Amino acid sequence: MFLIDIIFGRKKIYRLRKSYDRAREKADKIRGRDFRLPVLRMLDQAEPTLVLLEEHKISRFEKARMIKYVEAGIREAKKMMDEEKAVKI
């Protein structure tokens, strides 16, 4: 179990952290405050769950549920940023 977690489990969490950080940097660069704040709120809701995934031992079921929650939050934030780009054009 420990070996499987090292090989497969942490890699997905690190990838999630990387995509979260990229989305956060992209959101910080948005000029308009009206567009930036909802995106940052969406990302701020997902971050505590991501930190929990990184720091604590969690059952496989809970881990899968939390990963889906974080992925959904990042996906929604990216969608909001894309919509903001479409409005500007």
Concise overview:
This protein is mainly α and 89 residues long. The chain has helices spanning 2-28, 33-55, 60-88. The radius of gyration is 15 Å and the shape is elongated.
Describe this structure in words.
The structure is a single chain. 89% of the residues lie in helices and 0% in strands. It is mostly helical and 89 residues long. The protein has one domain (2-88). The relative contact order is 0.15.
- Largest sheet features: none
Distance between the termini: 51 Å
- Please identify the structural class as seen in this structure: mainly alpha
Beta strand count: 0
Task: Tell me roughly what share of residues is in helical segments.
Answer: over 70%
Instruction: Estimate nothing, just give the exact number of structural domains.
Output: 1
Structure characteristics:
89 residues; 0% strand; elongated; mainly alpha
Draw up the topology in text.
Layout: H1 2-28, H2 33-55, H3 60-88
Helix pairs in contact: 1-2, 1-3, 2-3
